[in-house]
Amino acid sequence: MGLDLFDWYSSKNALPVIGWVGGNVLKQFRLTIDYPNQRIYWLRETDPDSHDLDQVGLTLRAEGGEYIVATVATKNGKPTVENISPGDKLIRVGELETKHATWGGIYEALHGKPGEFRVLLIERNRNRITVPVRVTAF
């Protein structure tokens, strides 16, 4: 039996991990750390972006400077992306060549307004395929 993600991550730390705060949340705040009093002060500087996570629903993994589809996100029990499969190598998103691209650059290229399309070039079984995919609201 394997550990869930929180248990696995907790095993690497002095204290149990009960959650994460993503960078998309941190963008809204200025943090002040008061080390002597062991406190953190959060000052909201902007409103949250309700469309921050709207993008093509793919989870990627990096392998030697290239990006491979790890899974296709689902929404309401249905895949959000058609004609893409785990194991496909992502070659290009629009004009962005993904080899040695940054995570931020790739996810920015996959981001958009729900219903918009992004054109992906993938490699599957040594064949390159162009696939139009829709941005999903998450």
Please, could you describe this protein's structure?
The chain is mainly beta and 138 residues long. The protein folds into 2 domains: 40 residues, no CATH class; 77 residues, PDZ domain (Pdz3 Domain, Roll). 13% of the residues lie in helices and 38% in strands. It has 3 helices and 10 strands. Strands 3, 4, 7, 8, 9 and 10 form a 6-stranded antiparallel β-sheet that branches. A two-stranded antiparallel ribbon has the order 1-2. A two-stranded antiparallel ribbon has the order 5-6. A hairpin with a 2-residue loop joins strand 3 and strand 4. The longest helix has 8 residues. It is globular and about 60 Å long. The two termini are 31 Å apart. The mean pLDDT is 91.
Which sheet architecture does the biggest sheet show?
Answer: 6 strands, antiparallel
Order of helices and strands: HHEEEEEEEEHEE
What is the CATH homology-level superfamily of the largest domain?
Answer: PDZ domain
The secondary structure category is mainly beta
Number of domains: 2
CATH architecture of the largest domain: Roll
Give the distance, in angstroms, between the N- and C-terminal Cα atoms.
31 Å
How many helical elements?
3
